[in-house]
Amino acid sequence: MALFDKLKKQVSEKITDGISAAQEQIKDKAEELTPLAKNKEYQEKIKTLESENKRLQSILSPELIDSTEAISALDKERETLEIKIQRLSNKLLNLESEIKSKKKELIILDDETLYQDFGLYAPIYDLVNSEAYKDRITVIRQRQKDMIKSDTACTYSKNMTLNNSLSKGQKMVKDNVKQALRTFNNECEMVIAKVKFNNIESIRSRIIKSKESLEKLNKAMDIQISNEYLDLKLQELNLCYEYALKKQQEKEAAKEERERLREEAKLAKEIEEARKNIQKEQNHYQNALNMVMQQIEKASPEELSDLNAKKLEIENKISEIDTAIKDIDYREANKRAGYVYIISNIGAFGENVYKIGMTRRLEPLDRVNELGDASVPFNFDVHAMIFSDDAPSLENALHKAFEDKKINMVNQRREFFNVTLDEIINEVQKNYDKTVDFIRTPEAEQYRESMMLKKQAYKA
């Protein structure tokens, strides 16, 4: 439309400019001749010029008429195009409306999209274990089979005829009912098998849309999947999802139990080895004491002073060994005694991320060293190693204090927290009545050396 208006304007301007130019030319010549107008010899020239002006007007007028007709034709063409544009606009609006409607029916199952949009699932059944879920799923599926067997899974027309035959019509309807149910069951089975944390709501919508689509296809026979049967499928979906969750929880619990048993086995082995070593050492010093005692009985007064000093030294060693044996007996008998450790790994996790864990091992650093194996790029640094007669309670108190600052809010075994060391020190002081030495700055030797090597490589 803007193009036609522009063309019309250009034509009008061209005509106007032509007329104006001719009139200006006549005017200029008239002005030149005005002083001579009184002379008769020039009167004829003036008449001639006036005649020329009329002739020019007669020449220009048809052009103007032709141009006006051209503009009128362009206006009509513009109106025609405007009508077409309006029709296309209406069609576009209808298409946009249809696309919007189709989008509502579209069930997105793309993982990347679902990861961004999934919501938290609230458990419905919360059964004791995976076996209980398995049993409930079996019951739900049996109820579905019973509904199909009793012909209550679908409702349909009872008056449909085929070639004026009611029996043939009913057979045709029932065949279509079987087909609809088979299709619905197959699709439900396929999508339920893929259920996970980020797609359960999409799968729920897909099951409902599948029912609606099949009912549209079979509208002529009035075939409808009953709401009760649909509800059983949705129950199966929820149960299968919660069954998978429970299985994962049981897997994590079993992993934790295996870890606990491994720790206990390592502790038992450490205690056994420590007991053997200390008993060997005890026997050594006991034999040494016996020898000194024998030497004292036979010693001269000059030798007696040195032997008594040696005897006292050995007795002190035996006393230390007796204390160590009592400690080993205590650690073996007291299942809650152990160490709560505060460690960090700035190369792997950055600043202000600490792991708060517990070990019953006789050598707690062995446990820390195991954590810094090939699964992380750098070794852990120890900020505190706290021995407690009730290590699990101290560990639990610290975990509870920082519950809202967990890095992993789902898996309780991941004992990493986004806190400052001052916050940890404050909580330890609240829950532990003995002095604890904290190392504030982590050594992080390999990490710091790696950073230095990178800087040197960059400069080079």
From TrEMBL:
Top-level taxonomy: Bacteria, Bacillati, Bacillota, Clostridia, Eubacteriales
Protein's name in the database: DUF4041 domain-containing protein
InterPro entries, sorted: Phage_T5_Orf172_DNA-bd, SNIPE
Coiled-coil annotated spans: 39-112, 244-291
Domain Bacteriophage T5 Orf172 DNA-binding per the UniProt entry, residue ranges: 348-431
SMART domains membership: T5orf172
Coiled coil recorded as keyword: yes
Domain of life: Bacteria
Keywords per UniProt: Coiled coil
Native source species: Eubacterium maltosivorans
Pfam families given in the database record: SNIPE, T5orf172
